[in-house]
Amino acid sequence: MKDRVVVITGASRGIGAACARVFAEAGAKVALIARSGKAIAALAEEIGPAALSLPCDIAEWSEVETAVDKVVDWAGRIDVLINNAGVVEPIARLAEVDPAAVAQSYRINLLGVFHGMRAVLPVMRRQGQGTILTVSSGAAHNPLEGWGAYCSGKAGAAMLTRAAHLEEGPAGVRVLGLSPGTVATEMQVVIKASGINPVSQLDPSVHIPADWPARALLWMCGPDADPWLGKEISLRDEGIRRAVGLI
CB-based contacts of 80: which residues, under 8 Å, 6+ apart? Predict the structure, then answer.
């Protein structure tokens, strides 16, 4: 990843912040995107000159477009986009959930992924290469009580991965997703507090650390992950964990 340019959404905490550190350690320049400007500024200062912080709401197309333009001005190219930003809220049954909260969930989990793809694809097409990685979830393929908004938003994002691969694979753009399983982040605290569905009943000890999916995403930038182009890699798979070097 020496001098490769990596854009990370949702970079202020959890998997996104772990990606910033892991990719920077691998030699990449990292552009950190999140709504929390103070958090990403602190992370960029920790990483050093190879990091750029860009406060941005991925739910707003104009902000994402502007952020990507700033990355190109800063580094001249974009080699990797990590579509990581996401929210699990609202957690509520469909008959009771707030429609406005569902709409906001879609703006982040689905439109945010689209906005990231739409912004970087022209850059990657001009370069003749690039990689787009989207952090998915088992919830994209399996419904869970109280997670109707989250499951359907993630399912839509999984289809965007397939569509982008179909359209842009011939242009040299690699597109694939990662289903990390349950990760020890603040999202799990929210899930635990909800008390809804079996995921909220999991013991915290079963959640993997945030650097595991970050290291998997780094591995996915290489040719060993090419068999999964247009698909999703599951970090629950022991073979994948061994390939990444996690076990």
Answer: 4, 5, 6, 7, 23, 28, 130, 131, 132, 133, 221
- Joined together, the tokens standing for residue 241 give 């964990």
* pTM passes above 0.85: yes
Local structure of 72: helix, strand or coil: helix
d(CA 191, CA 49): 36
| CA 78 centroid distance within chain | 16
Give catalytic residue positions: 150
Smallest CA-to-CA distance from 61 within 114, 11, 16, 104 is with 114
CB 216 within 8 A of CB 244: yes
At residue 203 the predicted structure's pLDDT band, cuts being 50, 70 and 90, is confident
pLDDT at 204 over 90: no
Contacts 24+ apart (CB under 8 A), 202-206: 206/182
Return the structure tokens found at 42: 């602190």
pLDDT for res 202? 86
H helix or E strand, kind and range, residue 117: helix 112-127
Q: How are strands ordered across the β-sheet holding 130-135?
A: 51-55, 29-34, 5-9, 80-83, 130-135, 173-179, 232-234
- pLDDT of res. 187: 87
- Asked if 235 and 208 count as a contact pair (C-beta separation under 8 A), the reply is yes
- Helix 99-106 / helix 148-168 crossing angle, nearest 10 deg: 30
Exposed e or buried b per residue across 109-140, where buried means at least 16 C-beta atoms within 10 angstroms of its C-beta:
bbbbbbbbbbbbbebbeeeeebbbbbbbbbbb
CA angle 210, 143, 10 (to 5 degrees): 30
Strands 232-234 and 5-9, by their bridges, are unpaired
